[in-house]
Amino acid sequence: MQKTMKALVKARKGYGNMEVWDVPVPKTGDDDVLMRVWGSGICGTDVHIYQDDYRAYEEGLIIGHEFSAVVEAVGKNVRRVKPGDRVVSCLETREGTMGNDHVNGCHAEYVVMPENQVFRIPDNISMKEAIMIEIVAGVIYQGLTETLDIQPGDFVVILGSGPIGLMLLQGVKLRSPGATVITGLKDDGVRVEMAKKIGPTYFFYNDEEVTGRVMELTNGIGADVVIECTGSEEGINQAIAMVKKSGQIGNFAVYNQEKVSVNLSEVTLKCLNIKGLWGFHEYSDPDLRPYGGAVSYRNALRIASLGALSLDEMITHEFRLEEFEKAFEVCRNREGIKVIFRHGWTYEGDS
């Protein structure tokens, strides 16, 4: 087996400063699984690391946490998977979060993770679709099932038609809502097309007086649930304005600026319940840290295997690792939905 590999690294603090390095293939401990990465997805967090408005990382970190792979080798204590198995892995470890802080991530030819975070891919899910499992886990299972309380018949608004918003729309539709609304920008192009294809009850562009339209459609009551995915000051204030009294707001956005101005008096007067939907539940005990993510991944694979989600259609662009500047430009310009890196090899017919 080769001793070095290509990896996308955040070399230094500051905007950009990403480079493809030749680094050692990670070592496999007794309880670890070494995986050959088939493909990896660029998450919004990766873009924030590129832009340096998410700064929890250490310099020299291999970024990335959405991927599918094939098991290359296992430690002597590993029993659940074997070389040749198609797998995905949760991003949470006892030491930290893969590709976000100081635990090396998956924008590389190989990645290693503990066995208890690695899961076999069901036969009816392709390697390409499996790259999306992290989003299913964090958005549909953890964000909707574990955090928000969406009831059949609820009027649900999703602000923003990026990858998270589009996955949320699919998840909300599985819960028999009374009506769904999703918003987008007029220059969002393929994202707007995908949103309309998924089939919300209503689609509005951001400049169409969305709050007024929602209030009109709900007879002045407001939406039961509003989920903010725009990452803008306007978006979170829209959510507060259009949600009903005692309604729920799910905040799935990360903001480029450190502070945003929010009308907190409305939060008080309307008795609002605002919940952060950032990924998986955290545990203060490091021994329990990976538990929330592992449960979410197992359930996400079950959800995806039902065949009710459009996963491969959300992947609109593929690049080689060395083309990372082009890939990040597509993400920053909102020219696609999900952008992935491919490493140029196939597995049992997956393309």
TrEMBL record:
The keyword Oxidoreductase appears for this protein: yes
Pfam families, alphabetized: ADH_N, ADH_zinc_N
Keywords from the UniProt entry: Metal-binding, Oxidoreductase, Zinc
TM region positions: none
InterPro entries: ADH-like_C (IPR013149), ADH-like_N (IPR013154), ER (IPR020843), GroES-like_sf (IPR011032), NAD(P)-bd_dom_sf (IPR036291), Zn_alcohol_dh (IPR050129)
Source organism, top-level taxon: Bacteria
Domain Enoyl reductase (ER): 16-341
Protein name per Swiss-Prot or TrEMBL: Zinc-binding dehydrogenase
